[in-house]
Amino acid sequence: AQTVTQSQPEMSVQEAETVTLSCTYDTSESDYYLFWYKQPPSRQMILVIRQEAYKQQNATENRFSVNFQKAAKSFSLKISDSQLGDAAMYFCAYTRNFGNEKLTFGTGTRLTIIP
Amino acid sequence: EADIYQTPRYLVIGTGKKITLECSQTMGHDKMYWYQQDPGMELHLIHYSYGVNSTEKGDLSSESTVSRIRTEHFPLTLESARPSHTSQYLCASTAGGMVVNEQFFGPGTRLTVL
After folding, report:
1. Contact list, B109 vs chain A (CB under 8 Å)
2. Per-residue pLDDT tens digits for B25-62
3. Which 3-state string (H, E, C) describes chain B?
């Protein structure tokens, strides 16, 4: 069974600084997808960034980027120039590439932005 | 925000009552999901559907049931609510096909059973 581990229950960062959230996963599959989802307080969960396992290049979306280490089964999220609106729970998630999109989530990291 | 809706947003109900949590999406997505999320915890898949008249149980055992009579609608029912059912329930949907697509989430229903 696939598992996703987020070892940092809480993180904080000064506004405008950079923070990295950690995620490791365990799978015997070679073809899969990894995601970071953001869940702001009392708001809908939204996708931040996704990574296809077959792509060696790390995904980037504006201030958000990942460090995908397939051999180490590590998938960290870097947030640059942190903003107050980045405060949220961040969930790492995994799915096999069989088109059913059943997501396995980590336990989440609560990110606080310090003004 | 995504075009996926859940009602009610909050529900407080007594033990033994029958409840239905509504989920609808206007994106024409074939695949829909129900997740259960306890406060500050990860999401656990309890039900999913790949299309009309298709429903499957998820990884987390749940006493709830679901139906998919219309593409846009995926309600979840608890025949007899118990305090152990107190949780947040999130509905999600994604487009069909062989490519893995993003899941869009609803705002959730926070259920409290007294």
Report:
1. none
2. 999 999 999 999 988 788 999 999 999 999 999 888 88
3. CCCEEEECCEEEECCCCCEEEEEEECCCCCEEEEEEECCCCCEEEEEEEEECCEEEECCCCCCCEECCCECCECCEEECCCCHHHCEEEEEEEECCCCCCCCCEECCCEEEEEC
